[in-house]
Predict the 3D structure of the following.
Amino acid sequence: MIRRIAASVWALSLAACGQQTDLNPAPGTTLPPARYGSSEPATAAELLTLEPQAAPERTVELRRESEEREDDPFDLPPEG
């Protein structure tokens, strides 16, 4: 029991001591080349930002009340 607690405390303390700094390319490597039509290559922060198509905003409102489901012609019982 004590070993489990000690292992949990050790794992949590190890996970909490990570250093948070700006991302830079590894030594000896460079960032990808500039996009077509761009004069400068993108920075690491720009490469990490998601485009609107990758993470669209939710436009469908959640249902507020229970509604009767329509008949689904593809909801068939399993064969056999």
Notes: The two ends are 49 Å apart (CA to CA). The helical segments are 2-16, 44-48. The CA atoms of residues 23 and 48 lie 10 Å apart.
